[in-house]
Design goal:
heterodimer; A: 205 residues; mainly alpha; 68% helix; globular; B: 142 residues; 5 helices; 74% helix; 0% strand
């Protein structure tokens, strides 16, 4: 007997597969970027059904929000259409299939979804302990926050430093200042110039 | 990314003007309500940044940079990490372990409360400013 929850998750995961095939097949990079945003949104939906609300929140905000915009920015540096591919080599396909099979084989070791016998549930120092004692030890009703900011505050510090390092790297690569003084564009100029519109249609605006 | 204001984006401009304050408000809610509901510094930072990015996409980079200059952003990026690490150092100075918030106040629970507040605020500030500077970085080319 399949529960409603499993059914919904199955449908959402099937959507993910369809979207992935769409991303691979599409030559229009713009559409592919939009599909990656959609992918994150559907994944976030699946996380909500699995009761991982905080993860879903992050996935929706970062995956379908910010990274879509950054991808669009990256596409605007190049062309909106993928170059025609040459003949795909058989060797590459064999390697991809072998890697995929290995990854799937790796997941066979993992506990079943929702299993009560998974190590996270049965280990005396994990899930149950946090659920029972975090209110007395840390306080916040949202135990995810307790774990994230207090029990494993050191890891979160590391994550913040990673975000910081990524920001510094992008700043030093791209810079924050405009190269050309485009500030000259008058803010209230009557910009009713249709030719400019035509010319820009395949670029990002 | 080529971004500059255009007259025929009037509808988008009006909608953006309406939406930005609510997005900012929601970001603050996610930031400071993370103890009680889903959310926290990471999510709040991204939501807060997305308000600026939306504004930048519609009204142009120039006006966004007037609101939040890159020089300020550069300070904020480091300030968040420093706030986080500084909280850790403070707990050590007060005699606890690194990031052991119990010692921050007279009673361990309110110490934890203050510690988590400071740390999440640090995460939020860094994530917001990094996301906005990523946007500035991409948008200022071309």
């Amino acid at each position: 007997m399949i529960s409603m929850e499993h059914l919904i998750i199955g449908v959402l995961l099937a959507f993910l597969v369809v979207i992935t095939i769409g991303i691979i097949v599409l030559r229009d990079l713009m559409a592919a970027v939009i599909l990656t945003g959609l992918y994150s949104l559907v994944a976030a939906g699946a996380f909500v059904v699995m009761d991982a609300v905080d993860v879903a929140f992050t996935e929706a905000a970062v995956g379908s929000g910010i990274s879509t915009i950054l991808f669009l920015g990256a596409v605007s540096f190049t062309r909106a259409e993928q170059k025609p591919r040459g003949n795909d080599s058989w060797l590459a396909i064999v390697f991809v299939i072998a890697t995929g099979a290995l990854l799937i084989y790796g997941t066979l070791d993992m506990p079943r979804y929702g299993s009560a016998e998974s190590p996270a549930q049965t280990h005396p120092q994990l899930g149950k302990r946090f659920l029972e004692q975090s209110a007395d030890e840390v306080g916040p009703p949202n135990i995810v926050t307790s774990v994230l900011a207090s029990y494993r505050g050191y890891d979160t510090l590391g994550e913040t430093v990673v975000v910081f390092a990524a920001g510094i790297a992008v700043m030093s690569l791209l810079g924050l200042k405009r190269r050309r003084p485009e500030e000259e564009i008058p803010e209230h100029a009557p910009e009713d110039q249709p030719p400019e519109l035509e010319q820009d249609t395949d670029r990002l605006t | 990314m080529k971004i500059y204001p255009r007259q025929h984006h009037r509808v988008l401009q009006v909608i953006t003007r309406l939406m930005v304050p609510f997005v900012l408000m929601f970001g603050l809610y996610v930031q400071f309500h993370g103890d009680y509901g889903p959310g926290g510094g990471f999510q709040a930072g991204v939501i807060f940044a997305s308000a600026f990015i939306l504004y930048g996409l519609i009204f142009g980079l120039h006006r966004t940079r007037k609101v939040l200059p890159p020089s300020t952003l550069r300070w904020l990026v480091s300030f968040g990490v420093l706030l986080y690490a500084g909280t850790g150092l403070l707990t050590m100075l007060l005699g606890g372990n690194l990031l052991d918030y119990d010692v921050l106040a007279s009673n361990p629970l309110s110490g934890q409360h203050w510690g988590i507040f400071a740390v999440e605020l640090g995460v939020g500030i860094t994530v917001t400013s990094v996301m906005i500077s990523l946007f500035y970085g991409f948008a200022s080319k071309r």
